User: Fold these one by one.
Assistant:
Number 1:
Amino acid sequence: MILNMGPQHPSTHGVLRVLLEIDGENVVRMMPDIGYLHTGIEKTCEAKFYQQVVPLTDRIDYLCPMTNNLCYVLAVEKLLGLEIPPRAQWLRVMMNELTRINSHLVWLGTHAMDIGAMTVFLYCFREREDVLRLFEAISGQRMMTSYFRVGGVALDAPLDFFHRVKKFADRFPSRVDEYEGLLTGNPIWKMRTKGVAKISAEDAIALGASGPTLRGSGVDIDLRRDTPYSGYENFKFQVPLGKEGDVFDRYMCRVRELRESIGIVQQALEGMPSGPIKANAPQVVLPDREKMKTEMEALIYHFKIITEGFAVPEGEVYQAVESPRGEMGYYVVSDGGPKPYRVHMRSACLANMQCLPIMCEGRLIADVVAAIGSIDIVLGEIDR
Amino acid sequence: MAPGPAVVDIEQLKEHPAVARLVGWNPQAVEGVKFDREEMTITVVREAIREACALLRDDPRCPFNYLSDVTCVDYYPSDLRFEVIYHLLSIPNKERVRLKVRLSGEMPALDSVTSVWPSANYFEREVFDLFGVRFNGHPYLRRLLMPENWEGHPLRKDYPVEGYR
């Protein structure tokens, strides 16, 4: 029998349609069908100035806006050859890790709810609310933050911001203990996740999996550590690895990543350098509001950047960052003009999704739900 | 502020494991190399792409065992209009390399690398869908993101941003 799961199904985390060929409760063949959220963002990017692309990048993955911002601005900065001041880099790292926590909390809550543990969802969204309030404080937005700019960040942190982050960071590890108390040792949780939807390291590499989906199978790779960007080489953190490559191992990887991320946030708070938050490049970075009122050049640059954009030297770069879901990559081609010639987003989820058939075939329909949850799927990112 | 000039001399870049491997295998297969902004690009002739990928994957010294991405750029209206681009990563050595194949605008087609990396499946379908580049030997070359009955390939440069309507 052919069963159509989705596109409107609560466990598909968006609009994923899965075609299941089933024999009783067993899945014989599985085929994901995507494209329901395709908005042509890559095409839209080609019609925008470089700085106008930043808000578009938020919208491809609504759970980790700042990771996408970061990846895009790093790519453009690499094209320009811009030097970013340390304070901006550390702010970026800190916000990026808070984004990872935000994304993992949504994943944990919804994944647990898919499998039947309702309470965890409420707990996770309690902490997620704290993170969103922090986002709002620094960027003015809760979800589509667009906080990073080519050349730095949009605004400096408000006065009590670091104090609030500190309070959150001190409280958070005990909250992770709460989630783990509800799930990790829970026999029902273990039965639903241990040995379910397994994938070997070889298969995961061959199918292009990345992030916790790959690390859950025991492949030791984390782009933050292996190809450091934005000053990640200054931070110390562990890369949690799984062994079996089942749903439980991917769960453990992400939960331990929550703890590592909050550790990075703590380190960023302790070592936060002072200084400018934008690069010294008047042709690219918008001038301060105050300067525009007193300096002719600042006003001219502001006008030129807004109306004509800024030219980026010819070339092409591929910048990859470790997003909560895996390797997020931006391939940006410049023809020397003020608009990108081509922007391509390498979506971690698209590749991770290719692992679904191998995880699910030969197992029960109920495991399909667990498997989809365990690769932390975001359809906006897949379809772009 | 501007980055340094790109290095395109193949003699200077022979140290790079991917260049060494490909030139050692078949110098005719390599059309050009470029080292720019700390990134290595190797342009490979169209016929050799699948074998080149398999060679790089199985390189004992620096195995580029992970295919990060496949994408395409349309340089309309030049003769060799399409560039299909492969981003490879070596997980053990943390090295990246970019392979390129240039294709003409009429019936652009090249060999699929799905037999080397199954992960190329969706990436190539996406390129086919949005650019109309055909991949010979692909197991299931159908549209991925656009509807089945869609006309045209939206990411081509001669396709208007607003669509045809």
Note: The first strand of chain A starts at residue 2 and ends at 5.
Number 2:
Amino acid sequence: MRLSSRITGRIAFGLIWASGGVAVLALLFIIGYVVVRGLPEINLEFLFTLPRGGLGGEGGISSCIVSTLWIIVVTMVLLTPLGLGAAVYLSEYAPDTRLVGFIRYGVELLAGVPSIVFGLFGYAVFVTVLSFRFSILSGALTLVCLLMPYLTRTAEEAMRSVPREQREAALALGATKWQMVARVVIPAAMPGILTGIILCIGRTVSESAPLFVTMGGSSQMPDGLMSSGRTLAVHVFYLAMETNALEKALATGTVLVVLILLTNLFTNWISERLQVRMMGVS
Amino acid sequence: MSRYTIDRLSSRIVFAFGVISFVILILIAGFIFRESLPALRNVGLFNILFGTEWYPRYDEYGILTMVVGSVMVTAISLAIALPLSLGTAVLLAEVASPRVRGCVRPAIELLVGIPSVVFGLVGMVALAPLIAELGGSGSGSSVLAASIVLAVMVLPTITSISEDSIRALPRTYREGALALGATHWQTIWRVMVPAARRGITAGTILGTGRAIGETMAMVMVIGNAPIFPDGLLSPARTLTGSIAVEIAAASGTHQSVLFVTGLVLFVMVMIINSASLLAYKKGAH
């Protein structure tokens, strides 16, 4: 028996709305659950005292906040020039040869490799061979390797989408190639590049596995590049696995969710604002 | 400095950056391989891949249980996430009003960025106890819990890429189908979704990659027992989780086997990526 197309359609649309509903509810549930249970725990004392360690998971998250900031700053300082430089090379300078095609394929491939594999690499090279030990430096360098393919690809795409006419106009006015790149292509690609950079900051905040195996996870206040530490995300993991302080874990999770929310809002704001300013009439 | 000097200098510098990124690339592959060599020599690839016992203390280094664990949670999570994502993508691209879409889409994009430990935490605190009541092991850490958590994690990825690819189809597809007398649903199911299958495949493959590579959330909800799961409620262990939990305390052959585990993950991702390339080519014909 064939169902009439009207009934099939009804059922199908019912299923579609249901799946959309389930998806949204799952998402709302996760954020809601973390924030509703975590928020009451958050106060100034929680943010500004050291985690005391131990099974009770007493204390706050001050050293984790500082570690997270350290990791963000060190990672981005190293990552930004490297990623953008490689992107400029690939989009503007690279000849269309087989080697360059291979590099591009490699970058693409590397962007899909699980982050724990980068953690392994960081552990072998930075922690062991270069003997940076379990430290903020090791963690940041590992993240640089993890995020570089991603930033390169995003920035390259942004630069490639700058129209040819703008480049040709610059060259026709007598600009050297570098002047064209620095004053025409990069500014025009800025919204895309900045979005890529902020997304990298977001990933630095949320990444846990590679930092778990390269930073050592000390809960002490870090006092420099070479000291061990744990970021907020790693702290959530430790609290959940090694203590009974689930409320503290949920509170730290809430801080993470808020940070990610802020980066998202900032990205949207930037791409809207800069799009209008850079492109003139949008 | 004249602008010509700057020009020449900067082209060199930029080239150097290109080279550095390439060198890092080679280094990563090279190092993982180099560190794997002792294990490959002492234990043998076959014994590692197909060994069923994981007791590093007694020199038993089989990772088959974890391969099964990884593949199982990935497959089940995709089976849950794929229909939901496809439905949500169609809903957003073809059915929902712009206002509904304007609320739902940003929410889904936000979910892509939420740290995996947060998913793992909710799985641990809210989902696992539920599963324990269903008759799982003590804490409820199980393949089922891991698969559900993973499904929610890959859902936003698959949804947003699928929606983009449905949205990118030319208007004429829809109008042609409707003009031929197809109903709205027939248009969606017989014209729009098949036409967007390349994008949907790409999204699914990206989701698969994320699922295979997910580490900390899996450690938190799967129980980490290196055994063959004998059902959905049984605990298990993933390849990624094994590396994360053991690397810091491992040395010698044990450490080297963990690098082989990384190599296996690397190869799995390459296979998945080549599959996407194949699907892409097929779609182009």
Note: Chain B touches chain A through 86 residues (CB under 8 Å).
Number 3:
Amino acid sequence: MTIQIKTIDLEPKRQTFGHIARRLGGDKPASRYQEATLDVQATANFHYKPLWEAEYWQYDTRKTAVVMEDWYKPLDPRQFYYAAYNIARANMNQAVERNFSFIEERGLIEKLSAEAKAQIERGILPMRHLHWGSNMNMTEITQRGYGTAVTAPCIFSSGDHLGMAQIISRIGLELDGQTGASLDKAKETWLGDAAWQGARKLIEDTFVERDFFQLYVAQTLAVNGVLFDMVYKHADAAWRDGAIPVAMLTEFMSDWRAEEGRWSDHVVKTVAAESEANKTLVSEWASHWIDRAIAAAKPLSMALLNDDGKASHTAADAAKTRARSLGLSI
Amino acid sequence: MAQVASLTLLHNDDARPIIEAIMADNPGVRVLDMPGCVKLDRDMELVVNRASVEACIGRTWDPQEIHLVLVSMAGHLDEDDDRFAIGWAH
């Protein structure tokens, strides 16, 4: 007796949701990213007007001066949705854990010269406050922004900043024998050290920026592009004999910056390319905030590196070149 | 008669961008949808390019990752860091 095994090919009635199919121009299988992103945010039939800001609806394209015909144009080239983002970050965090245990096992932080420790305390630890401010900004863009394509990656980014602030806290705990004393001192530095006041003023001024896309430009091109890049990329000499341990412990920051930069650049580029008016506005914002960030970075660069601001100029040039490569005129 | 080079891949989220990349890079590829898998046939040669898959998924992709979704193949394998090719020319 022979048994014949038959298979029946059942055609699914539809490959994806109707609203995704309309976006893709036909009923075809969509990626998780597309299904978790496209047209997810509500656009109409809100029940209650937000009375704290009665001129707007909850989600309102008028909360920024730039105009997009479709806020789902600036998609994320990394295609991050919840799972993809978490998997990517879990992998990066594994490397962080490995680096910390490597440094702890060999006592690489304990063995540093007192000068290097003091430099790291002054130059790196206060960055946790800057990351916390950046976390606030990205969260603000998430809640004021328009379209899931923009706002979802923003909340991921705010989570990244919180994570990086924690990594810095751990560096502080390595320095002070897990007592937290260095972190208290770093807060005093953030609040009182003249070298940091420009950076503090800059991030505090961004807190009150109401235009969500202007805030996005300020955060990604200026704060990330100038301040973070200067401290994490161009300040190795500041950490003296601690340059290598610092590079290892801040590896997350450089990986994150390279990866998030792809997304944030793409968003700015797409919005600026939408119209001449957008390009003019975004260029103005970029040049205003990059200039402010350069002014904030200079005293830091001089205090940490005693280099007459050379590191801040390097970061400034890179930030401007980056902005120009996105089609902005600055 | 030309020999057929063929790849059979799972039909899931991980494989879909690979399938897309194959369809874009291999003119004349014949796609056979089966329950749970997709069989891609082409005369003589079938190529999966790393760059095309990366463009579809937005991250780096190692051609070795294809093994996670590969069900079956026909042809001689020629792979390096940039492509995964099967064919009968060699």
Note: DSSP finds 13 helices and no strands in chain A.
